[in-house]
Amino acid sequence: MFIKTTLNSFVGTSTPTFVGDTRIDGYVGNRPVVLRKMKGGMLMPSLGTTVALPYGSGQVIGYSDEKLLVDVTEFNDDYEFINADETEIYDASETVARRSSALRASLATIISDYERVYKSEITGVLSQSRQTKLDSFIPEITETTVCVAIEGQFLKGSDTIIAKVIPKVKLTPAERRKQRAMEIADAKKLRKTLLEKYDDEFGGDDAPDDAIQAELDEMFGNDDGEF
User: Fold this and answer.
1) Residues 210-219: pLDDT tens digits?
2) Number of C-beta neighbours around residue 223 at 10 A
3) I need a labelling partner for 62 at 20 to 30 A (CA). Which of 102, 111, 124, 198 fits?
4) Nearest CA-CA partner of 68 in 36, 93, 95, 116
5) Are the C-beta atoms of 62 and 69 separated by less than 8 Å?
């Protein structure tokens, strides 16, 4: 089951934690959840969320190819894009128009292929159920709609995100031991990755424990320094 929640209502786990065989990201209330992530680990905001982009800001109107469909409503007057040949400079509205044109061409191809495969041989058009499915997959696109993947933290604590609730199951003693072993293995794997990262960063010297702990705390939303 998927739910909508805010980042403020989500509490991350302080260590790798499993419910059954599923590693969870944390809890909403007392419900274990996995946050819905998209391209590059980007959290999935709910429809209508306002997001900031380099060339302006707009509302999320849909999703495509694990990216966000954003209808840009405000433009950044200071934005400029210079092409690779350095022969053209585009402002925010021109950049959005170009990106939107490419998006609409791509979606037109998807729609054409879908209609070709699923249209009725008798009527030559899609059935009502097929048309409804297509409309739900591809929302109404305007000349200011772009498709984007955003890196890093781009949402506010009050923004609504999508999460999947993981049902709690009653485990046998053997299953609990297996789950604990999975959690320990994940924690060791993560710590080993960080040790290797800091070993490169510090030129072979031992990485400071507080640096590793700080990164672990940031990953798992842990403020007490207990990993």
Assistant:
1) 655 565 555 5
2) 8
3) 124
4) 36
5) yes
